[in-house]
Fold this sequence. Notes:
This protein has helices spanning 4-8, 11-15, 32-38, 59-72, 87-98, 114-125, 139-147, 173-187, 205-216, 236-253, 283-296, 305-319, 343-346, 355-358; strands at residues 28-30, 43-47, 77-83, 102-108, 129-132, 159-161, 196-201, 222-227, 268-270, 326-330. With 366 residues, the chain is an alpha/beta fold. Helix 4 crosses helix 5 (87-98) and helix 5 packs parallel to helix 6 (114-125). It is globular.
Amino acid sequence: MERPIDRAYPMLSVRIPRVTLGEFPTPVQLLENFGRKEGINQFYIKRDDLSSSHYGGNKVRKLEYSLADAIRKGRETIITCGAAGSNHVVATVIHGRRLGLKTVALLWDQPNASYVRKNLLQDLRNGARMVYLPSMYALPFYALRALSKGWLGRGYRRPYFLPPGGSNFLTSLGYVNAAFELKEQVEKGLLPEPTYIFVTLGTMGTAAGLVLGLRLAGMRSQVVGVEVVERWVCNPWLWARLINGTSKLLHNVDNNIPLVRVSPGELNFLPGQLGEGYAHFTPRGMEMVRRLKEEEGITLEGTYTGKTMAGALEFIEERGAREEPLLFWLTYNSVPLETKTNFEEYGALPRPFHRYFEEPFQPLEE
């Protein structure tokens, strides 16, 4: 299926493989009730939660490139990693299985929440091999072991490694394309060109692709990235590096694509929403989760998107931007996941993960 970026640069579809996993374009809609209560008349949302009926969210656009690359290279097993409740891992397991790829998930601890249980069970139900890491800092050692011939055992051949969040120069192309998709929606009159686009900053592939794509598409919209993970993972310098590296990749593939270079100081990096740390819910973030559900019927969550909306409102207030057209890019999955479980089922998980089913959630979720 042809995508907007292929219409702009036809050689990309020839030289960079991509599989079709998503259902695009994802819709945009006006946050009518929420926006009215906030005094914002033109507050839109881009519904990437609806990117796939199998499992949505922002990972789908990235996986279309990474899994295609794995298949092109003859790989059979995806090795990836994240916290116990990683949405990226779930997306990789589900969409990899659709393509006949096995997944090995290297997982470390995080604060407990209901979605952690759901995601662990989805990993299990979709056939992932799950390996517990005593710490995220042990990832290099375990990743090297997993990539070593024979360590994973029979049936896990020819591994392909995906980093946390699935973000790299190649996968960021999914959101370069998304920017061109947005431009077409603006040209069709589905929304005005946004002055600001608010997006979660985790491993930053989504935000990097959007910044680059908007520039290549000739749009003036500015991306505002809201920090929701620790600074050593997420900062303006790494964000700029990801943008510039993705731009270089595109230019090397087709020198008709302009080479874009940004500096960290050009980027709208918005701190202040992390709270106590990754996956620790905040009162303001959980208020956003509650309000979007009640006022718009849209699902956010406390680790990423609730905090991002809280940051967006603070930014809008500080910049006096209530009269501007604004866009919130929803990166969460809204496809319902089966939640029913029992001891026999979670008992099949590696023992260190049992605690997520036996210990209480964070107080803000109770």
